[in-house]
């Protein structure tokens, strides 16, 4: 198993010593170029087709410190990304992958880095300062505002993303259906909790009360399980507030409704079937959902 750790902290320090005109190209080459295949699979251009057009740099600018924005003021944040942080991340990736030792993983090479997020970015604020990306096999990264809280969450956040990474080595991505995303996010968060404890449960679940889950989220999502398309499912999965930040219409759902629902749905599935989280992570969503019809009408406690 090969894990390519891109030490973004060192790149950020080097950027601070560079002329503005050279920063953008250096950042793309050192940090983003190894992810080109991932961006291609996601339909994200590495280079804009025209000046000012959409590309990976524009996408990252919505949440992150871009090369031209860095000043000495960000040094305390960069300093927090020390050797111990990177060692902890590599250990979390290896430990998470090792949980799937009963199967041969088709992907043996993994690329990981940490992107420095802006504390004022609304998307990061609502997620308590951190988020991750691991849906394309072989590629992982975390976005965070480095502080005591977010750094303590790195291993569990990485376990969540590794679970996605492994799942999509065995389960075909269906283009973005609500059914798949409910199951996938529920699997990933249950996997992270089993590895690092319920105290590390992500805000995308912990901020939802069981009353809200039972009375608002479950009945609504059950009636809309057939919604398909990445843009169409945004509000169902992330809630209206995040949907608005992404320029999408709301549907009346609270913060990360789909994540919370998926978490408890998978808990129910595991308890009912006796499957391990590792076994369940490799099962198609349709098979999992077929086993839990009573989840939707029962009361989650």
From TrEMBL:
<protein>
    <submittedName>
        <fullName>DUF2268 domain-containing protein</fullName>
    </submittedName>
</protein>
<feature type="domain" description="DUF2268">
    <location>
        <begin position="85"/>
        <end position="289"/>
    </location>
</feature>
<dbReference type="InterPro" id="IPR018728">
    <property type="entry name" value="DUF2268"/>
</dbReference>
<dbReference type="Pfam" id="PF10026">
    <property type="entry name" value="DUF2268"/>
</dbReference>
